[in-house]
Amino acid sequence: MSRFKPFDTEPVPERALLVGVEYGRREWSLEDSLAELARLAETDGAEVVATLTQRLDTPVSKTFIGKGKAEELVSFVRNLNIDVVIFDDELSPSQQSNLEKIVGSPTKIIDRTALILDIFGTHAKTREGRLQVQLAQLQYVLPRLRGMWSHLVGEQTRGGIGSRFGQGESQLEIDRRLIRDKISMLQHELRNLEKRREVQSKLRWDSGIFSVSLAGYTNAGKSTLLNQLTNASVYAKDELFATLDPTTRTITLEEGRKITLTDTVGFIQKLPTTLIESFKSTLAEAQAADLILLVVDASDKNFDKEIEVVTSILDDIKVSARKKLLVFNKIDLLDTNNLAKMRTLYPDAVFISAQKATGLRGLLYTIAHIAGEDDKTLHVCIPFEQGFLIHMVHERCQIIRTCYQASGLQMTVRADKQMQATLSPFTCS
Question: What integer pLDDT is reported at residue 230 of this predicted model?
Answer without folding.
Answer: 85
